[in-house]
Specification:
alpha/beta; TIM Barrel; seven-stranded parallel sheet; three-stranded parallel sheet; 8 helices; 12 strands; 41% helix
Length: 249
């Protein structure tokens, strides 16, 4: 028979193994739809870019707010003087700014360290330029996996997808995008979380004004992502920085 000492020793060893086992890491929530009834979140990816002023001003003229998911170095470097002005203009007009990661890579192809870098660099840029730490991140192409969710959670962010795509980034004509909006509005869902792109001229000048008019005629409130979720847009706020030599891509 096993002695009491032998049994006790085995139990202690087993408990040590159990305690040493790696614990599952938290995964970020994935947002695919709004939750506040009768709201629509108009969101714009891939900026900052040259249509920022037009999109922001069209929204404000209609009493609406949007959400801009920014890259750090995609169409242009976010630290370029003109891009800084665009980000500040959008933010000053009451729109929400959020992360679209630094270089618009497919996040599912990156390592743990690369993911942190992709997220951290654009977060740092937004904190420097307008003094906010974003609470939301949209993965480029909508591609994510559990590692992406793990890193996003560690960085205090939720992963945001959409339930409506205007098709502008894949070549949809103006007429096609308008038809997509009409089709989305017709059954009058409780909410709509849209995907549009700040970098498409026809989105800014033709599709967006049409979408705003149709959505408001249907009785929707056009709000930021955070408002449509009933959550805070930023993890924290601070005073913006002053540009120096470290602000570069």
């Amino acid at each position: 028979m096993l002695s009491q000492i032998t049994v006790l020793s085995a139990l202690i060893s087993l408990s040590s193994v159990i305690l040493a086992a790696p614990q599952p890491r938290a995964l970020a929530e994935v947002v695919t739809t709004c939750t506040t009834p009768n709201t629509v979140a108009l969101t714009f990816d891939d900026g900052p870019w040259i249509y920022a002023y037009e999109i922001s001003d069209v929204l404000k003229a209609a009493g609406a707010n949007g959400t801009f998911f920014y890259n750090g170095n995609n169409y242009a470097c976010i630290y370029d003087d003109e891009e800084i002005k665009r980000v500040k203009h959008v933010f000053a007009n009451g729109h929400q700014v959020a992360s679209h990661t630094w270089s618009h890579d497919d996040l599912t192809t990156l390592t743990f360290d690369q993911l942190h870098d992709e997220m951290w660099r654009v977060e740092q840029a937004l904190e420097r330029i307008v003094g906010v730490a974003p609470a939301f991140m949209r993965p480029p192409f909508g591609n994510y996996n559990n590692l992406v969710r793990e890193v996003a959670a560690a960085r205090g962010q939720e992963v945001v997808i959409w339930d409506f795509d205007s098709g502008d980034s894949v070549g949809a004509t103006v007429q096609k995008s308008k038809q997509e909006y009409d089709a989305a509005i017709k059954p009058h869902p409780k909410t709509i979380l849209t995907l549009n792109h700040e970098t498409i001229e026809t989105t800014a000048r033709q599709v967006l004004p049409y979408a705003i008019s149709q959505l408001q005629a249907a009785g929707y409130r056009l709000v930021t992502l955070a408002e449509c979720l009933g959550k805070q847009p930023y993890q924290w706020t601070t005073a913006p920085g002053v540009k120096d030599a470290s602000w570069k891509c």
